Amino acid sequence: MLQRLRNAAAAPLTGEQSLSKPVFSLIFVVSMAMAVGNLGLISVMPAIGRAIGISDHLIAAVFSLSALFWAITAPHWAKVSDISGRKPMMMLGLGGFVFSMLGCAVVVWAGLQALMAPIVVFLAFAAIRGVFGLLGSATASSSQAYVAERTSEKDRTAALSALAGALGMGTIIGPAVSPLLVFGFLGLAGPMVVFALIAAAIWVAVAVVIPSDRPSAAVREAALRARAAGKAASEKPGFAVWRDRNIGPYLWYGLLSACAQAINVYTLGFVIMDSMALPAAEAQRFIGIGMAAGAVAGLVGQWVLIPWLKMSPRQLLRVGALLALAGNLITVFADGIWLLTLGYVVLTLGFSFCRPGFTAGASLAARADQQGLVAGMVSSLSGAAIVVTPVVGVLLYEFAPAAPFVLNCAVMAGLALYAWKNASLRRGEADLARTSIVS
Question: Which position has the higher pLDDT, 73 or 98?
Fold first, then answer.
């Protein structure tokens, strides 16, 4: 299955604009490694917080500054990559990832050894993680733009779905291996150290394997003129994209669905710990199992079900919303670890349909000269979704355990209706269907 997706992504265009299998495979690994680290970190943070003595809602808030920076900087790095090339931005983001993981590991270790007060650990962790928000989005937006501009319209949905599958694989591996990396004197800081070392090795591979793609002087000059024109315009290009009748609906759907998914991801660890009534360190194994099971479902959705069903982006949006709704309903009534895991599996399967739907839909609705901008906007959704919603979700959970999942049920029901009725999403569906994920 992965080979089929690689073949689709590697469909040659012309000259320098072709995407070779080795290059795509490395970009795939880059995306997967960052997802491994991020989801692995999320899976251990509830245990870290309770071991150090940081309240649950502050643990959820620890990623907010980073997420805000990510949302702000992703479009910026996408525009910079238009001028400087995609490869330098991939390396910049990976460098920020390595720095933040090592820095956070030091802070967490110091907190576990009682060398720093809990509030100092919280503030230092948030600040160092903020560096990843500033720089990490450069990798996400440039990787998507690199792939999008080197695949034909017919094959682009397959390529971007494969890239989303890299994130899915990362979300399986991260929570699954994190408990195994809690060892020795590093303790709960161990996963961060290992993830940083792996990312450093990948940084070297990117430097060696991916060809330089610095644009020619003429292309850079045209991009600079376009940026200058955008600054002089009364409306920024990013705002114009959000208001575009063809692209905007996919972005709004993406933002709301990403917010709902963030609530599920960031509350899962606390829900499992409370349902199991186990100490933080012992509950970590069950948190990893739950997250890994959901991630497997997401990977099956993106690599097996989507190619098999051959749905258009709009169909993915509808089915994804309904599955996420069903998963949250199961979670509302779950009373044990296995029902919680089942609910998380179903809702993650739904979100695995949603992301390729709005990512591919927005890319196909955009012009060739808008691909970098749209990639930046889509990448920024990941950050924007976790600026506030994880804190809101955990606060709702502390108020009433079912509350965050009831909210998600309402959101996903609304998005299912939106995907069914919205005229802009219906427009041109026949054309989009002809560029379905498996042609």
Answer: 98
**70, amino acid identity:** W
> What is the pLDDT averaged over residues 43-57?
82
Three-state SS annotation for the chain: CHHHHHHHHCCCCCHHHCCCHHHHHHHHHHHHHHHHHHHHHHHHHHHHHHHHCCCHHHHHHCCHHHHHHHHHHHHHHHHHHHHHCHHHHHHHHHHHHHHHHHHHHHHHHHHHCCCCCHHHHHHHHHHHHHHHHHHHHHHHHHHHHHHHCCCCHHHHHHHHHHHHHHHHHHHHHHHHHHHHHCEHHHECCHHHHHHHHHHHHHHHHHHHHCCCCCCCHHHHHHHHHHHHHHHHCCCCHHHHHHHCCCCHHHHHHHHHHHHHHHHHHHHHHHHHHHHHCCCHHHHHHHHHHHHHHHHHHHHHHHHHHHHHHCCCHHHHHHHHHHHHHHHHHHHHHCCCHHHHHHHHHHHHHHHHHHHHHHHHHHHHHCCHHHHHHHHHHHHHHHHHCCCCHHHHHHHHHHHCCCHHHHHHHHHHHHHHHHHHHCHHHHCCHHHHHHCCCCC
Longest dimension (CA), the chain: 63
Q: What is the pLDDT of residue 318?
A: 92
Instruction: Report whether pLDDT(115) > 50.
Output: yes
CA atoms of 348 and 293, how far apart (whole Å)? 9
**Per-residue pLDDT at 226:** 56
Least confident segment among 58-62, 252-256, 404-408, 421-425: 421-425
Cβ atoms 157, 356 nearer than 8 A: yes
> Is-contact 184 190, C-beta < 8 A?
yes
Tokens matching residue 121:
């650990």
Q: Please, are residues 66 and 133 in contact by the beta-carbon 8 Å criterion?
A: yes
Backbone angles phi, psi at 183, to 5 degrees: -150, 160
pLDDT score of 14: 38
> CATH second-level architecture of 2-426?
Up-down Bundle (1.20)
**Is 437 within 8 Å of 307 (Cβ atoms)?**
yes
How far apart, in Å, are the Cα atoms of 284 and each of 40, 150, 176, 193? 11, 41, 10, 18
Which of 7-21, 60-74, 280-294, 329-343 is the least confident region?
A: 7-21
Unique residue bearing structure tokens 């355990």: 401
Phi-psi region of 244 (alpha: psi -120 to 50; beta: other; left: phi over 0): beta
C-beta atoms surrounding 246 within 10 Å:
17
